[in-house]
Amino acid sequence: MGYLKLKDKAPEFKLTQTTGETFSFDAHQKEHEAWHLIVFFRGSWCPVCQNELKELEESKGYFEDKKVHVLAIATEEVEKLKEMVSEYDLTMPVLSDSKLEALEAYGVYYHGEDAPYEDHGVHGEPAYFLIDEKGKLLYQQRQTSPFGRPSVSELRKIVKYIGKNLK
Question: Which domains does the chain have, with CATH numbers?
Answer without folding.
Answer: 14-165 (3.40.30.10)
